[in-house]
Amino acid sequence: MPETAAIVEGVLAGFLERRENLIPALEDIQSHFHYLPEEALRTVSRRFKVPLTQVYHVATFYNCFSLEPRGRHQVRVCLGTACHVRGAQRVMDKVLRELDLPASGTTPDFEFSVEPVRCLGCCALAPVIRIDRRTYGHLAQSRVPKILKACRTPALAAA
Amino acid sequence: MVGMGTCGLATGADEVYEAIFDEVKRLKLSYQVAGTGCIGWCCEEPLVDVCLPGRPRLTYGRMDAHKARELVRGLSEGDLKPQWAIGLLTGFENPLTDIRTRYAKQTAGVDGVRRYEDLPLFRHQVRWASRNCGVIDPSSLEEYIARGGYFALHRALHAMHPAEIIAELNHSLLRGRGGAGFPTGKKWELLRRQDVTPKYLICNADEGDPGAYMNRTLLESDPHSVLEGMIIGAYATGATEGIIYVREEYPLAVKRMQEAISQAEKAGLLGDDIFNQGLRFQIRIVKGAGAFVCGEETALIASVEGRVGEPRQRPPFPVERGLGGKPTCINNVETWADIPLIVMRGGDWYAQIGTATSKGTKTFCLVGAVKNTALVEVPFGITLRQVVEEVGGGVPEGRKFKAVQTGGPSGGCIPESLLDLKVDYESLTQAGSIMGSGGMIVMDDSTCMVDIAKYFLTFLADESCGKCFSCREGLQRMQQIVTHISDGHGCEEDLDLLEELGWMVRETSLCGLGQTAPNPVLSTLRYFRDEYLAHVREKRCPAKVCKQLIAYRIDPTVCDGCGACVRVCTSEAILGEKKQAHTIDKARCSKCGACMEVCQPKAVLVE
Fold first, then answer.
1. Which residues in chain A have their CB less than 8 angstroms from residue B373's CB?
2. Which fold is adopted by the domain B449-537?
3. Nearest beta carbon to residue B594 from set A24, A94, A133
4. Do B292 and A82 touch (CB under 8 A)?
5. What residue spans of B329-448 are helical by DSSP H?
6. Which of A118, B194, B370, B527 has its CA at a distance of 20 to 30 angstroms from the CA of residue B348?
7. What's the pLDDT tens digit per position in A74-87?
């Protein structure tokens, strides 16, 4: 995909190719694609002169990176302690049931990716989920369908 | 003033802000509408504060766009809407200058609105580190300065020798607020003595503890206090470069911090010639990539260097060999925010409150089963009971207090019998928990301690970096055993095995994560052994949480047959005719709890 290559090059142009910039560069690539394409990892390895195994090590160590393509909307269900004691797991189960996913992951139409997250720091509003940049607090299972529906890309929702 | 922290925004503060802005414009009023940080009254978000000339400041809770418009209309007609106000503030203490800012000359209140100083939530608080949170607009350098900001830096640069600053820190007995409690003055002294350059300062804002958001609030609500602390640190230790390491999950904190840094650079508070005194210091932000272990200082350094966050053996400590092999001093956000106070008021002043070994104040996030979920700052030496029952307002009606969990996933659960414990580093450790960064999660009788132990073990086994065998394998094994117990398959020998494994992991792991990881299990085993025994002996979960040991049932005498549960049940497990008592088919029930949530007459029971 020449497109991918161009975007990766564009992102890397903003960084001095020093080891300490490896993680910020990967973060920027991730925020473009919502995941790290293999091609990007190879380019980064070449440009930063860091062995591919080490780039892979970093990309798989940190939670914010994904090697699998993700959906258009990132649903992050907080499973922090405060949310846990207020029934976050039930909210998680509801989100998964609603999107017909067996476990956290991406829907087949690439509309949503669901992942658990360890604390969004809004513990007073537990249980909490964050979809893209917006945080929803005091969640009850019954509110989940409406919230997800509102996030759907209009064209897909109609279909 | 609208509280625009992450919590506020999550409850719709942006809409409230827009509504107020709009209404003020529409009515052509000469009000100033501002966003502020978070005062910590989280359970009442979104908060709106109103301050009319010569009148006390009023706080309104649980606002929405509609109420906000009505409030503005009311104010314009002289109606203060006291029925919506939850607190009244006649002025603010400023610990930096020891001046009390007063909003109103007369101290007359507003009928029916309680003063902040009379509210249990605020009465016990001493807001030092969070002195500006919710008071100023965090994106305004001018407001920070108006509250006495950067005076301490000015004083340090003009009137104090670096050694004097460190001496004041030593007098203050300030200890690291990240949890380990290492004396800050001593750390700075060690950095100062290094003759290798460059030296680095790092602000650790990798607040990974679930259930804690003190650092996020400070960065979002008062970013300059952290910067000022770091610049003073640079002068005292000879460091030339600073790094703020923030979690990627805190986008607003990153944004506010970035703004503050550029303001400080423009104002000559950062750069090559700070305050024209020849001090050189730069600060940059590094975003974490989501790894709990990176809160550990050597792992954090590895992460800043672009490597995987695995801790390494200490010594050498980072103050000798840190970032890039150069001397590095790492302090927590709250520690940095405390520095200007100590420089301004002196170490002895700071040490006037607290216990023998822990001085000053500490912020805590009081969450879970308490009425007032809030971010609070209390003096050391306050009892846990005061924090939970008075500041927090106790557990909600009809529930019974069970435990308070401190110190994040590596902390422990403290039972009711130890609630009179005074909060300080040592006493919490003796009770089998830790101070940690300041999470305080209150649990009532609907929380199962076995489930909590399982939860923390799952978290820690997940976040273990995998370097030490004992932590990597030990935690996984412990997690399997606790899951086994929670599923009702455990036996009594499992409890002994858990204890043995716990001690092993504690004694043989390299870093703080592994050394404290068994705490949740060991402390629950110590104080709540009977709950474990109920799971293994009677195959019963007393708190009715562990899914394998509970069943849902409908009380036929209460059920009115409205059918709400049938509509939400996705496993088609609820049967019954309309307007007649329904029943749950236990074989089909997935135990999701959706029916219980929607049942108005509360006919769905767990047993």
1. 82, 123-124
2. de novo design (two linked rop proteins) (1.20.1440)
3. A94
4. no
5. 333-345, 347-350, 384-385, 425-430
6. B194
7. 999 999 888 998 88
